[in-house]
Amino acid sequence: MAIKTKSIASLPLSVIVALIVTSLLFIAIPLLTKISTMRKKSEKVQHVLISQRKPPPPPEPEKEEKLEEQKKQEAPKKAEQKQRMPQPKLNVPSSGLSANMSGTIQISGLLKSDFKVSDSLFVSAFKLNEVDQPPKILRAMQPRYPFEAQQKGIEGRITVRFVVDTNGQAQEPEVSKVEPKEVEGIFEESALAVVKKYKFKPAMKGGKAVDCIVNLPIKYSVSE
Predict the structure, then answer these.
(1) Domain CATH for 167
(2) Boundary of a domain, candidates 36, 51, 66
(3) What is the span of the domain harbouring residue 158?
(4) Residue 137 — pLDDT band, cuts 50, 70, 90?
(5) What integer is the mean pLDDT of 131-156?
(6) Residue 13: predicted pLDDT
């Protein structure tokens, strides 16, 4: 031990200082590294916390109710605007609808796609008081008496409304009256079928045959 002490003591002072400094550096470097890493971590955490943004506060209940009411009020208005569409107008001069009219109304090509005239003869046919000569029956047929009604002695009267066309045929027959009311549903089918077999002389107006509306009563009696 005495030899070692002597050898250390015999070393120059500069060497001893260098050894002390070196040992201190070996100790200090790990400590500095730890301190720098801790600082970096703390800086990162602080940066994340700063970058976070709070969401906007929810709207007040009163404002939400007002917005919903406005939407409800605007919805039907928009629906009405969509449903509103311009309607075509048809201006027919009165001079064009004379009493002599027996054909169809001529409509310009612009309106044909949007406007349709009814195909029913009742629309253009004349009434009895509008013609010079009313239709006349040339051939009448006896209606078929329903068997069950005949056996039970059920009687009635059916008035059939139809149009006698320019060829003397009954067109578009329909039941307009049943007498008495208790016999409804018994004689109508038979009456409509027999009217189609009738032959007429067409009505005349201005020397021309025209369509004319006729109401023809058909009687169902057991005694006849």
Answers:
(1) 3.30.2420.10
(2) 51
(3) 121-220
(4) very high
(5) 95
(6) 75
Residue at 60 is within a domain: no
- 147 domain-assigned: yes
- The number of beta carbons lying within 10 Å of the beta carbon of residue 138 is 10
Q: Could you give the number of structural domains in the chain?
A: 2
Higher pLDDT, residue 77 or 91:
77
- Is residue 206 situated within a structural domain? yes
Indicate the pTM of the whole model. Answer: 0.48
Instruction: Annotate 52-115 with three-state secondary structure.
Output: CCCCCCCCCHHHHHHHHHHHHHHHHHHHHHHHCCCCCCCCCCHHHCCCCCCCCCCCCHHHHCCC
CA distances from 199 to 48, 170, 193, 213, 215 (A): 103, 8, 13, 15, 15
- What distance in Å separates the CA atoms of residue 90 and residue 110, rounded to the nearest whole number? 11
189: enclosing H helix or E strand: helix 188-195
Q: Looking at residues 46-70, what average pLDDT do you find?
A: 59
Q: 32 lies in a domain?
A: yes
Kindly report which listed range (22-31, 71-80, 153-162) carries the lowest average pLDDT score: 71-80
In 3-state terms, what secondary structure has residue 179? strand
Q: 125 with 47, same domain? A: no
